Amino acid sequence: MYDESMLIEELFETYSKEKRVPVAGVIVEPIQAEGGDNHGSNYFFQKLQQITKKNEAALLIDEVQTGGGPTGKMWCHEHFELESPPHIVTFSKKMQLGGYYHLEEMKPKQAYRVFNTWMGDPSKLLLLEAVVDVIFKDNLLDLVTRVGDYTLAELRKMENEFSGTMNSSRGKGTFIAFNCATSELRDATIKKLLKRGIQAGGCGDCAVRLRPALTFTEHHANIFLDNLRSVLKG
Prior knowledge:
By secondary structure, this protein is an alpha+beta fold. It has 6 helices and 10 strands; from the N terminus they run αβββαβββααββαββα. It has 2 domains: 4-137, Type I PLP-dependent aspartate aminotransferase-like (Major domain) (Aspartate Aminotransferase, domain 2, 3-Layer(aba) Sandwich), CATH 3.40.640.10; 140-233, Aspartate Aminotransferase, domain 1, CATH 3.90.1150.10. The protein has helices spanning 4-18, 42-54, 122-137, 140-161, 183-195, 218-233; strands at residues 25-28, 31-32, 38-39, 58-62, 88-91, 99-102, 166-172, 175-180, 201-203, 207-210. A hairpin with a 2-residue loop joins β7 and β8 (175-180). α1 packs parallel to α2 (42-54). 27% of the residues are buried.
């Protein structure tokens, strides 16, 4: 049985033996966002980590979109039940500033090997500290998980109602997407929702994606779902 992890092993082999350029590391999103909110399985990410370890390559997980709680965990890769943490994790957006954290072994031996003009923004760290305090004080990760499960279940019911129009509802937490039958229908759906005061995004060829705040509740979900149903009815 062939799976995507076999393709990755083949790429490592090609670069190492044929091109004589060993792979230094792999950069991967836990959910391929701009490409269409495509999800890899836990098995895929577990195999990916095993392959990078076997080839002494670093595993960098790009959590710029998924970090900060929208999948119901602070970091989306926590869903994957990895044997050990990734070598490097990058973040931004909900985390108030762009940055990364890493294993001790990835720390440069020389000072200022990773350097830029700004060297971070301490004021953003104060904002982030306040945000993280609220996330845990108000149990927002639990809220995201509960409301995400509810919204996804309702979207899947809607697929039965509009089987020729929408399909493939998917997500973790409130990091949710579904596909429209065509790119044109996707674009029209987003525009009609916007006229109703609801901002949804597009990604990939035909996906509509949701990126609500961590305070998104069932009440807000129902407003979205009711308006989406009305738009799809035409």
